[in-house]
Amino acid sequence: MFSDKKEKNVASEPGSAQNRINEGTKLKGDISSTGFFRIDGVVEGNVKTPSKVVLGKSGVIIGTLSCENADIEGRFEGNLQVSGTLSLRSTAIIEGDVIVGKLAVEPGATMNASCVMQDGKPKNATANLPISENSKVHPFDRQQRIKKAAVETDLDD
Questions:
Q1: Global pTM?
Q2: Is 149 within the bounds of a domain?
Q3: 111-119 contact pairs (CB < 8 A, 24+)
Q4: Banded pLDDT at 11 (limits 50, 70, 90)
Q5: Which element (helix H / strand E) includes 93?
Q6: How far apart are CA 122 and CA 118, in angstroms?
Q7: Alpha-carbon distance values, 93 to 34, 56, 72 (Å)
Q8: Domain count of the chain?
Q9: In whole numbers, what is the pLDDT of the chain averaged over residues?
Q10: Domain of 92, in residue numbers
Q11: Does any domain span residue 4?
């Protein structure tokens, strides 16, 4: 009636286990995990997880961070790729290149970085598509009015 055997689904979802790098710990190299991270020490290298990363006040990452969500209170230098929400607390210091889905910044945070916000779609995916005759054109569409005016001006010349 009751079975002692339970199947575990290992690679399908991010793990719920927390990985901690405590204050006073310094790591050099690449780190990859399915669980989320709490970093209060120093990491020099690449950190990759499909889950959340929390960088504490004393935490430092120098390198690349790729994750779903990030909550940063410490210092980050390098390339930061967050597919979900990046939350910068008032003590955060960010330097480098940032790619995020959503950005939340508390007053006092320092961000000396280039920042690109993406919604998961390729950049300019629809900009180069031709307008078909069957597509609906809204009469108040500004881009359509500008194109029409340009065509009429060219015809008048």
A1: 0.67
A2: no
A3: 113/80
A4: very low
A5: strand 93-105
A6: 8
A7: 26, 11, 8
A8: 1
A9: 81
A10: 18-29+37-117
A11: no
